[in-house]
Inverse folding.
């Protein structure tokens, strides 16, 4: 026999009035808690600026006994509050930390905030579940992008019923037919019958793709839309971390620059993308400035490096610059702004062409051209640790006041020796996952790896 459920009568009279007053006060205090969290984040942001490099973490420990992660939670809420009015949303404080975390996909954050703005009550568990599902969908998308045509076709066949099956090969075949018809149209050789065929193919696939879209989770659909290449033709091919470390540990020593010499210097990465090069540089430089014209959820964005008004105080400027004509503009501006030196990761073919010779290399030849003996694998939109390539790459280095050196071939041990155990986990996320500090010392990674010299 099941227990009877006893209903609680709604309060009335003086009791109801007092309860309503308590509820209103609790809601008001809840908003004040959120406002307090935002203000703490704002004050911590300014305190970090005032502390300066090397004093921030000790100050946190001395004043509050906090780890950096605690302060970062407050600061993240403050930063996110600039674009969303958290105080007016019915959300628990713990949910704000989840929503404002850098690892939370923007599409998940925006969708949850939209729901909260309509008055929907969201629990911490619901928010966490939505964020996790969105991240899972993103990982699945990355796996699909890495598939070959045959693997994609097999995956599509396995994922859909016979009635809904859409194969990659069939889509390519039919779209190829449409393109052929369009080419004939531009040449003035198309007939009405062919145009009718093209329209029929397009209409058929439009219906089939719409049917497929209904089976895609909301989070996955949003991710696929947000991860499309930006319309202004940005070139996002992340640099493997070991290739950046090769610059510091193999190339710059040829010019007399030791990795330890960089610990008190500032480097600017003006095309930082998701942080693949900036995070590797942070292992050596005391301060890293990371900017990009497109917001990849890492560093400061949007910042147009080619805008004359854009300036940062930097000893070195190091980047994997955009391709083709922007390479020249990046190189000339980097040489103009850097106090000590410039390094550019480029395809070896960029040493060619009359235009590049006349606009940069004739009057500004690199101090050192360092050529990779190993192949450096670059993938569009991601780093694939196990990928391959037939493209040759090099580091072009300019140092003020240094005489030119003969070409240098980077030894063929870099990928093996300079790849770290956690690279695959950190540098394949979107954006790159920063390496957490293991203690209160805010030191460059190189100094952490260098054993102290014995006293004489």
């Amino acid at each position: 026999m099941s227990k009877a459920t006893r209903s609680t009568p709604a309060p009335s009279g003086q009791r109801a009035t007092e309860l309503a007053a308590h509820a209103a006060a609790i809601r008001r205090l809840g908003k004040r808690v959120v406002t307090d969290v935002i203000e703490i984040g704002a004050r911590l942001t300014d305190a970090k600026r005032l502390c300066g490099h090397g004093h921030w973490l000790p100050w946190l420990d001395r004043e509050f006994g906090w780890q950096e992660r605690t302060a970062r939670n407050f600061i993240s809420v403050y930063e996110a509050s600039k674009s969303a009015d958290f105080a007016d949303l019915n959300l628990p404080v713990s949910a704000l930390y989840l929503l404002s975390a850098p690892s939370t996909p923007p599409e998940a954050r925006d969708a949850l905030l939209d729901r909260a703005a309509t008055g929907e009550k969201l629990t911490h568990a619901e928010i966490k579940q939505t964020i996790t599902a969105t991240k899972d969908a993103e990982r699945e998308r990355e796996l699909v992008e890495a598939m070959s045509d045959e693997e994609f076709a097999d995956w599509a066949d396995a994922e859909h019923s016979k009635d809904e099956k859409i194969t990659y090969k069939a889509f390519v075949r039919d779209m190829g037919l449409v393109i052929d018809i369009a080419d004939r149209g531009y040449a003035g050789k198309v007939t009405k019958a062919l145009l009718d065929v093209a329209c029929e193919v397009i209409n058929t696939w439009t219906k089939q793709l719409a049917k497929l879209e209904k089976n895609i989770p909301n989070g996955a659909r949003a991710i696929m839309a947000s991860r499309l290449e930006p319309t202004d033709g940005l070139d996002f091919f992340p640099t493997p971390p070991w290739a950046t470390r090769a610059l510091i540990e193999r190339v710059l020593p040829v010019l007399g620059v030791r990795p330890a010499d960089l610990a008190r210097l500032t480097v600017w990465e003006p095309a930082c993308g998701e942080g693949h090069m900036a995070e590797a540089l942070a292992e050596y430089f005391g301060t890293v400035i990371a900017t990009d014209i497109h917001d990849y959820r890492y560093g400061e964005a949007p910042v147009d490096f080619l805008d004359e008004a854009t300036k940062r105080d930097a000893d070195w400027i190091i980047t994997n610059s955009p391709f083709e004509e922007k390479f020249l503009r990046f190189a000339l501006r980097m040489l103009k702004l850097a106090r000590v030196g410039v390094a550019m990761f480029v395809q070896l073919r960029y040493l060619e062409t009359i235009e590049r010779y006349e606009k940069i290399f004739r009057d500004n030849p690199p101090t050192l051209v360092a050529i990779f003996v190993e192949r450096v694998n670059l993938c569009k939109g991601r780093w694939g640790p196990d990928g391959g390539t037939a493209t040759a790459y090099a580091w072009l280095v300019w140092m003020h006041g240094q005489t030119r050196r003969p070409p240098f071939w980077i030894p063929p041990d870099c990928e093996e020796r300079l790849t770290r155990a956690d690279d695959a986990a950190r540098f394949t996320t979107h954006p790159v996952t920063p390496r957490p500090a293991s203690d209160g010392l805010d030191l460059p990674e190189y100094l952490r790896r260098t054993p102290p010299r014995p006293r004489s």
Remarks:
- The longest helix spans residues 13-51.
- The chain has 17 helices and seven strands.
